[in-house]
Here is the input.
Amino acid sequence: MTASSLLPLAILLTSLGVAPLIFLLREESARLRTALNLAAAVLKVALVAWLSWRVAEGAVYEVRLAFLPGLDLVLQADPLAVLFVALSSVLWLITTIYSVGYLERGDHRSRFFGFFSLCVAATVGVAMAGNLFTFLVFYELLTLATYPLVVHRGTAEALRAGRIYLAYTLGGGLVLLLGTLWLWTLTGTTDFVPRGIVGDLVADHRTALTILFVVLIGGLGVKAALVPLHAWLPIAMVAPAPVSALLHAVAVVKAGAFGIMRVIYEVFGIDTAMAMGLTQPLAALAAVTIIYGSLRALTQDDLKRRLAFSTVSQVSYITLGVALGSPIAAIGALAHLIHQGLMKITMFMCAGNLAEGLGVKKVSQCAGVGRRMPGTMIAFTAAALAMIGAPPLAGFVSKWYLAAGGIGQGDLWVIALLMGSSLLNAAYFLPILHKAWFDDPAGAPATPGRPRIGWMLTAPPLATAALVLAAGLMANAPFSPLGWTRFIVAIEYID
Amino acid sequence: MTDLALDPLGLLVVIPLLGALAAFAWPRGATGLSLLVGLANLAVAAALAVKVATVGPAHHALGGWGAPLGIDLAADGLSVLMLLMTAVIGLLVSFTAAAAFAATPGEDDAAARRRACFPPLWLLLLTGLNALFLSRDVFNLYVTLEIVALASVGLAVLSGTRAALEAGLRYLVASLLGSLLFLLGVGLIYSAYGRLDLDGLAALAAPAPVASAALVAMLAGLALKSALFPLHFWLPAAHANATAPASALLSALVVKGALYVALRLFTEVFAPADPLALLVGLLGAAAVLWGSLEALRAERLKLLVAWSTVAQIGLIFVAFALSGTIGSAAAWQGAVLLMLAHAIAKAAMFLAAGRIAEAAGHDLIARLDRATVRPGLALFAFGLATISLIGLPPSAGFVGKWLLMEGALTAGGWAWLAVALFGTALTAAYLARPLAAFLRFDRVRRPLADEYAWRLSDLPPLALALMAVAFGLVATQTLDLLAIGSPLGIAP
Amino acid sequence: MTTAAIYAAAGILLVGIGLYRLVTTGDLLRRVVALNVASGGTGAVLVAAAWRAPPGPTDPVPHALVITGIVVVVSTTAVALALIRRLHDEEEPK
Here is the structure.
């Protein structure tokens, strides 16, 4: 084992190792805690940059640890893993800065940042899991580590939300456990292998495999917020803003979507899954989720809930792109994994700023907030326009590829779906923008006076908004999300 | 005596026995003595484990008299795991007990009695358990079960409260009845086969009708002692009303003694008829359901933890239903790991619950969210133990459940699989109740005094809980050790 | 029916009687007595197991078991009585 093959482990440990240290810190040692957090986050980004470079050059990383006879814990860094790791580590750094500002006067900060690091560790583990078993381990860790963050405020409402969150995610985890165990007893392995591992079994175990597919997608669909398993997501919005931003816009839902991707590409293999007729129903379910989420978002007055339903809708683009089966749609899906993360985290941080700075929590209170908090609202506007799919922003790129993939396969309904969804996106985001920039504040604002929020709250959303712009403008650059995505699709589709 | 003094098998019985006598005779030094003996016991158990792992199963005939007349002590992989479990948990619990029962100025007689009585009772229990795990004949198993029972009743009533005395008496009667049924079975076996040693009985293997009657009587006795539904009635009160260290020992170790005997008899002596295996499995499933529902309703934290024991033991008994199928090896492995997992996690949980109750001044779940003092480390230990009891990866409970479910799946036992899954969901549901109370803060009137300053006595539960959670990382090694001497029909 | 079988049957009957009383009575003292009756029955079964056809000597092993069993029951009864006494004292404080 050379030093560099330990790189995946090191990337995991930057957040896993820092968590116990933070737990043990006294509440008052804010500077030390911030320093530790930032040092770990910066180190992680640096390591991930190195990893991406090496992986692009063709290096292979794998770490194995025997768990049970024949069943290993495996960490590996294939391009798909790197995509997700890069997203979560960069956003962890940005969100850490935001959280420090956001929780400046809050309680239980050691607990918060400890579990926050654990969540990131779990996400990184989910990304780098080399088999479904390892994936399951980190998937469950993610559930456990996010629960204390959801109930962080310690109110009755937060605890109720936490209970529902636990019921959904632990239930999903249990179903996934069943699926993993079943897969293992059927095939004797759970390894992720490009083109899948069950191809030989289709002839003999077609029914069993079909049920297994449903079980696995059911278990993963909870976190991916597929309708009708999505109800936890809007409820979990009671969590503090950084938690909603990083975890419920990025880490948790993406873990589900990412798992669906792994199952389709590397457990079943896209050809097998399509030949068994499993992908079409999934694509239909994703389509329903996309429309349903958008329709629900339309009627929400609570800003965070509107964003949450929008997440329900947007995350399913990823599932849709994978389930369509065309490589071009897959490029769109993978790119959207990154793009949606960047856009949504921006909007949640902005929503947090509005609540903190102005006491604005509802869409109806947004009148004139643009002039009072221009930085925040510029970031929000950029992200919202990207979400609607305005060129040249990031969202446009993913929608373009999804549509192209649909046309290429003759699935013209995809065009209708994307157009409908974009119209709905516009219908629930544009009124907010209009109110914020063009309406005069009617009546007394919730919190009068100048908003007192520091640079630590304003800079992070601006930074992610800039990334949204960059991901769209420089979509063809070698290390852009889109560029990297093509690299992955080449592996999953070409022998 | 010379051979006894040198052989680890003999030492494991002699050291705690002499320790118990000395602790009884010398109350002032009893606490220190119990720690010392616990350490020595752990060292010998570890030495035995190394010996068994390198050389193979160990065997020792007391006084040079072998079976069938003399008393044989023997250790295979299963025995060694049980001995290690007992040694580690026992030692850590005695640390907590030493702290919990430490002398304070102006204490009453009851406190002094607890301090003086805990060490000899615990060492007597250790003697009984060690001898139990090393015994190779059914009559010795009976005697050791009895030693364990008497020591446990002493521990159960140690708190001296009225509730504890009543529960303890019920426990004593149930336990004695269990012993009598077991003894009846021993008598029947002897009348049928004329011998009592496990190896000899296994070799005979000619099924006689009397043997089935004997098995039923013995299993009924063991079910009573290990609180298998519907014979669990004595357990919740006895475990919930004891002092925390005693509860930890009772729930973690004592119940496992009877369970261990049941495992041995089931797999090594008898090839039980299918209906009996099915019945045991069904009762186990009922226990999972009933224990969990009661835990969901329990008003007190310690009662919840005690009901959880009923449910978890039930899950272990589910493995019995898979005996004789192609999934049996995995199911037995799962059962053993679940025993270890439950022992470690439950000890941690009872110790932590004791500390929480002490800090809050009560252990009513509904009012825990009003507590202004929240002992951070103990709550954390409780949370970690929860992970293992629910069976989330990579904990000990997860490995056990995974193997059990693997056994059920390979044997096509979908119903048993469903029991394990449903039981997991229920476990999460009832253990989430106290966790939610710890995390709620809006009902506290005064400013909160998070007790970040930890005490020495918080370390044992934390250590146990960490052990339970990280256990998966040594699962392979544990299974290798378990397979030595192929107990339970597990091939190495 | 051999002598041994009669003894064994009587023993099992005694166990049954003891068990019946044990579950039907709430009185602590009666329970302990019922347990003793049941244990007497167990002893009888064991003694019956020691019986051998007349020319041979009886088997001493079950006898040893019975004696051990009696010791166990006596000590357990003592513990039970001590506990009952403690409970009694709690009810009527001096």
In short: Chain C is about 80% helix and 0% strand.
